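Build the 3D complex.
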Amino acid sequence: EVQLLESGGGLVQPGGSLRLSCAASGFTFRSYDMNWVRQAPGKGLEWVSGISGSGTSTYYADSVKGRFTISRDNSKNTLNLQMNSLRSEDTGVYFCAKMVRGYCLDVWGKGTTVTVS
Amino acid sequence: IVLTQSPATLSLSPGERATLSCRASQSVSSYLAWYQQKPGQAPRLLIFDASNRATGIPARFSGSGSRTDFTLTISSLEPEDFAVYFCQQRDNWPLTFGGGTKVEIK
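Done.
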């Protein structure tokens, strides 16, 4: 079964840091681009960052560029998101998602909650 | 690219037809996907490439459109279909999502 399981969320003060991880199983992890998508309480979906299968290409939303860093460890089937200089507007549920066809997110984790306060 | 979904809320009864719209600020060709999200759950991919159902998605869900105007149709609403629906594109980075349409029970 294809699964994604996020971890690392929690409560952090403004200006603080947090590292999210996403453990993947049930598919050939290195073959797929991966993404982070977040959802503020009661709001819609916001794409945060993406990374190619090899890890050589990374992409960021303007709202997080320079503060967040996406990475992956294909030997451990793990996706990471290092979040620095956190702001209250970064509060929300963070989902990792597997990408297919260059843009569709076909498998999602259950999410991990980040609260900046 | 900005995706605008309408209406924001759709109040319908089970068995009725739901028609949801997604309009792009510029052409996204057919690189348009639809997702369903229920409270407390992750989104689920319904439709990709504007009109193709994802694996396991019932035939009552259909998508149409191209370039800037897209539609998600649920032919006959089942109780489990009451949820929020998002469209999403990536003709160019960044990925963007529409604001969502909530389909609620009338």
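The longest strand of chain A covers residues 92-100.
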